[in-house]
Design goal:
The chain is built from eight helices and nine strands. The protein is an alpha/beta fold.
């Protein structure tokens, strides 16, 4: 998979992609992540990427020209499955969407900033808008990192035990059951005996029951999707 990310703050994305699973995916050659500074595609000597809002109002808007220049250059060399804009009013990211995009070959992701981007970019270049929640961030960089994490970890070979990702919360419209590790008894707080029994069928049954109970209690809408 190849992921190209467009941003006015490229350094903000350095840390998320330089550690843990996202770094491992790149080191294994399973994912190529390229971060592009939109300012490099500005046409004036000041590398301007934003301007005032037409019609008045607070905030600055990312200009169409630098973004269009960057997208057009990248598209001249790569055919993208999707050109994604991380936006508060996009489709809400869920596990189903992450599963879908984990199968992509090439993705281009645009991070908004300030008041947003010129609407003409959304109309003529963007093919998909995605939101990570009903709240506003200072920019789309952290949202892009969240989205990438959610899809990259699903690529075969990224996680050592591939079955781990398949048992995560939301994969079957259930929250994950409780998990425990050593010691079995900590200051009188004990691990449920069934998990120490060695009877896998009983353990699986317990986990399923716990997952269903937790989902019904905490996220009943998920339970209704089954």
């Amino acid at each position: 998979m190849r992921i190209d990310i467009l941003t006015v703050l490229p350094k903000l994305l350095e840390s998320p992609f330089d550690h843990s699973i996202l770094k491992r995916a790149q080191n294994k050659g399973l994912v190529e992540v390229n971060v592009h500074d939109i300012r490099d595609y500005a046409s004036d000597k000041h590398k301007s990427v934003d301007d005032y809002v037409y019609g008045g109002g607070a905030g600055m808007v990312l200009m169409i020209e630098p973004i269009a220049n960057c997208i057009n250059k990248l598209k001249s060399k790569t055919e993208y499955d999707e050109v994604i804009y991380m936006s508060p009013d996009g489709e809400l990211l869920d596990q189903k969407l992450s599963n879908q995009y984990s199968l992509s070959i090439n993705l281009l992701i645009l991070c908004g900033h300030y008041k947003g981007i010129d609407e003409r970019i959304r109309e003529h270049f963007i093919t998909k808008e995605i939101s990570i929640g009903d709240y506003v961030l200072s920019g789309g960089e952290l949202a892009a990192a969240v989205f990438c994490d959610s899809i990259m970890r699903l690529i075969p070979g990224v996680i050592s035990d591939e079955t781990s990702a398949l048992t995560d919360s939301f994969q079957d419209n259930l929250l994950a059951p409780p998990v425990y590790t050593r010691p079995a008894n900590y200051e009188g707080h004990e691990v449920p005996p069934v998990l120490l029994s060695g009877h896998q069928a009983e353990i699986d049954k317990w986990r399923q029951e716990q997952a269903q109970a937790r989902t019904a209690e905490r996220r009943p809408k998920l339970d209704n999707l089954k």
